[in-house]
Design goal:
Blueprint lengths: L13 E4 L4 E4 L4 E2 L5 E2 L2 E4 L4 E6 L6 E7 L5 E8 L18 E8 L2 E8 L5 E10 L6 E6 L4 E4 L2 E5 L11 E4 L7 E8 L2 E2 L5 E5 L2 E6 L2 E2 L27
Length: 241
C-alpha cells in the first residue's frame, strides 16, 4: 500500500512511505507528526541568556533562526572542556584550558572565532561576507562532525584550518549581552530546545533560559498571508515578508 496517499503532512512537506504507515519530514521551523506545529519565536535583549550543557555527551550539530538589526556583538559561544575525550566525565584532569568557538557579528557580517588553548593559545577567524543584520531572518547550521558552517541553507566554509576536532560540551547564547533581536527553532543534536524561561534537566541536557519573551502573535502562522503558499518570513519589526 501507499500510506502517503492518505497522509496529512503540512503542504509542501515530504512524506515517507513505510508500507503500513507514513512519516512527515518537517522543514524547520515546523515540527510534529504532521508538521503542523511551529517553533515559537522568542525575543532576546541585553539581559537574556541561554545556557545549555550536555551531561554525558558532546554537541555535534546546532541549528537556529535568528534576526537582529545590530551590527556588532556575540551571538553564541561554544565551550569545549576537552578536545580529545568525548565524555566530560572521562577527563583525568578538570583543570585543562578551555577551547571556545565564538559566533559573532562584525559590521553586520557573521564571523567564527576559534580559540584553541592547547598546546598554546591560537585564534582562527573565519569570515562570511553576507550581511546578516538586514532585518530578515537567517538560518545558521553548524555541523561539528564534518566541520561545516551552513548559512541560509548554503554551505559556507569548512573549518579546515583546525587540526583537532573541537568537541564542545556547552553552548551559551547572548553570553555578553550585546545584541537585541529574536531567536527561533534552536536545535541541539537535532533536538528542539524550549526557549521559554526555565531551569531544568531534560534527558542529556541541563538548560537554563533567562529573560526570553515569547512573541505573542506570529503574522505567518497559522494563516500564511503570502500567495501561492510562498515562504513567509517574520522581520525584526515582527511584520512579515
Amino acid at each position: 500500500t501507499n500510506a502517503c496517499k492518505h497522509a496529512v503532512c503540512r503542504k509542501n512537506e515530504l512524506c515517507h512511505d513505510h508500507w503500513f504507515y507514513y512519516t512527515c519530514q518537517c522543514q524547520s521551523p515546523f515540527f510534529g507528526e504532521q508538521c503542523d506545529q511551529i517553533a515559537p519565536i522568542v525575543i532576546f535583549n541585553q539581559s537574556s541568556l541561554i545556557d545549555i550543557s550536555l551531561l554525558s555527551s558532546s554537541i555535534s550539530n546546532i541549528s537556529f533562526f535568528f534576526n537582529t538589526l545590530q551590527s556588532n556583538g556575540t551571538l553564541f559561544q561554544l565551550i569545549s572542556f576537552s578536545k580529545h575525550n568525548r565524555f566530560t566525565r572521562q577527563l583525568i584532569s578538570q583543570n585543562r584550558s578551555l577551547s571556545k568557538i565564538l559566533g559573532t557579528l562584525v559590521n553586520g557580517r557573521f564571523h567564527l572565532i576559534i580559540i584553541d588553548s592547547e598546546p598554546q593559545l591560537q585564534e582562527y577567524e573565519l569570515r562570511n561576507e553576507q550581511i546578516l543584520n538586514d532585518g530578515r531572518p537567517h538560518h545558521i547550521e553548524f555541523d561539528l562532525n564534518n566541520n561545516q558552517l551552513i548559512i541560509d541553507r548554503i554551505y559556507n566554509e569548512s573549518l579546515i584550518r583546525i587540526n583537532d576536532r573541537i568537541i564542545p560540551n556547552k553552548i551559551q547564547f547572548i553570553p555578553y549581552g550585546s545584541l537585541n533581536g529574536w531567536l527561533q527553532d534552536l536545535r541541539i543534536n537535532n533536538q528542539l530546545i524550549s526557549l521559554v524561561n526555565t531551569n531544568e534537566t531534560k534527558q542529556d541536557l541541563n538548560i537554563t533560559v533567562l529573560n526570553m519573551k515569547q512573541l505573542e502573535y506570529n503574522p505567518c502562522y497559522p494563516n500564511n498571508p503570502c500567495q501561492n503558499h510562498a515562504n513567509c518570513l517574520v522581520t525584526n519589526s515582527h511584520d512579515y515578508l
